[in-house]
Design a protein that fits this description.
Keywords: Membrane, Transmembrane, Transmembrane helix. The protein has 11 helices and 9 strands. With 338 residues, it is of the alpha/beta class. Strand 6, helix 11 and strand 7 form a beta-alpha-beta unit. It is elongated, with a radius of gyration of 39 Å.
């Protein structure tokens, strides 16, 4: 009967074959891969090693130190004071490179989708905005020649919106550029010749500068596409800068916190109610929203009539001058009328 050798004997034989002591394997099992590399004939090169064309680097442990006839491995900053002092004098300190990947790796398609998502998103938002503007032009602005105005910001960074709009514009239009100081390069386009009416489509970065660009508009339709937040839009609609722009429609993009890839964001359409109290205040009003090439409220007039209830008791100061042969009628006579 053959008696099997004990397991301890096999371990000792195997350890002696690789040329290291059993104490190092028991105390430092993470050195087993390095021992296999040395066993296959790959020697040390600056305390870094390579395994099967993969970046297997240790770098955290120094070579073997022998103390009291025992072989052990330890970190460079713990067991080698001389090397620790040398590293402290230099600026570059070698750090440990961990070859283990933690987390969920992304595929190449997912990385491409993440890197190019903003291009797809901008394209979808642009097509949605152009479709909305074409619908407004055909229904409300067709009788008057639209004047398309844009500032330097939109013309420089978002010119793809203008290109898509001008490519499929449904009617004749006039275009103008707004300068850096919010003045038109050609002021004559605001003065129509004869009895021709005008309507405006304005792309503007700062919504508060609308009145400075076009001035007061009592009859013309004004479609404003600003690059401002929703809070800024509501502040403009409630301010006095929008009081003398009667037929005003503001289109603002609804920025969602959970803005996922390839999700089309809706456009919210605003207007204002004029003279809601005796102080002459304005009130922002949400008309509808546009998403998926349709309105959330289909039967809404985007340019509702204003001042239907008057001026809510607002007091006006009227000034007049005496101009013969016209005179101002006085309620009390003082003898000079005869």
């Amino acid at each position: 009967m053959i008696k099997e050798p004990p397991v301890r004997a096999l371990v000792i034989v195997f350890v002696l074959a690789i040329g290291v002591s059993p104490i190092s394997i028991v105390r430092h099992p993470e050195r087993f891969n390095e021992q296999l590399i040395n066993y296959k004939g790959r020697g040390e090169s600056g305390w870094f090693f390579e395994l099967a064309s993969e970046g297997y680097y240790t770098g955290a442990y120094d070579p073997i130190f022998t103390t009291n006839n025992e072989t052990s491995y330890c970190a460079a900053q713990d067991c080698n004071p001389e090397r620790n002092s040398e590293l402290a004098k230099t600026d570059r300190i070698r750090r440990r490179v961990d070859p283990t990947f933690y987390g969920n790796p992304k595929t190449r398609e997912q990385i491409w989708e993440r890197n190019f998502a903003h291009v797809i998103m901008d394209n979808r938002q642009t097509l949605s905005l152009v479709s909305l503007l074409n619908k407004i032009i055909i229904k409300y602005l067709y009788s008057c020649i639209p004047i398309v105005l844009y500032d330097t910001y939109v013309g420089g960074t978002e010119n793809y919106i203008l290109e898509a709009l001008f490519r499929d514009f449904p009617t004749t239009y006039i275009t103008g550029r707004i300068g850096p100081n919010y003045t038109l390069d050609n002021q004559d386009i605001l003065n129509p010749s004869g009895s021709q009416c005008r309507s405006y489509i304005i792309f503007l970065a700062d919504v508060m500068m609308t009145r400075k660009v076009i001035g007061p508009q009592l009859n013309s339709y004004v479609v404003l596409i600003p690059r401002s937040s929703q809070w800024k839009l509501q502040e403009f609609l409630a301010a006095k800068q929008s009081r003398d722009i009667i037929n005003l429609l503001v289109i603002g993009e609804s920025y969602s916190v959970d803005k996922r890839i390839n999700n089309e964001q809706p456009y919210v359409l605003y207007t204002h109610e004029l003279y809601v109290d005796g102080l002459g205040a304005n009130r922002p009003q949400v008309l509808t929203s546009w998403i998926g090439n349709k309105f959330s409220r289909s039967n809404v007039n985007l340019f509702p009539p204003k001042l239907r209830k008057g001026f809510a008791g607002h007091r006006f100061t009227v000034m007049a001058a005496h101009q013969p042969p016209y005179v101002i009628k006085r309620l009390i006579t003082d003898g000079w009328e005869m």
